[in-house]
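Elongation factor 1-beta: structure tokens wanted.
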Amino acid sequence: MGNVAIIVKIMPESPDVDREALKAAVKAAVQVDDIREEPIGFGLVALKAAIVVPDKAGAPDEVEAALQQIEGVASAEIIESTLV
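Answer:
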């Protein structure tokens, strides 16, 4: 069984959310390989996290659900996935 690399777009609840604290919370919730910032507009900045999970049913959904539980996160959505 291989692994799947996923890119998750994490939208904060507002521009006032501390991005560094949010990044730390994401890293604490799941094993993250890389996090980048993507300006959206009006001061809102989304995070894009690259995460590698096992290639098994439900693994990407578990990551997405864990990220949505973080305080300050409005949404977390898998925008890309590929086998590695």
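The beta strands are 3-12, 34-41, 44-54, 73-83. The longest strand covers residues 44-54.

Cheers.
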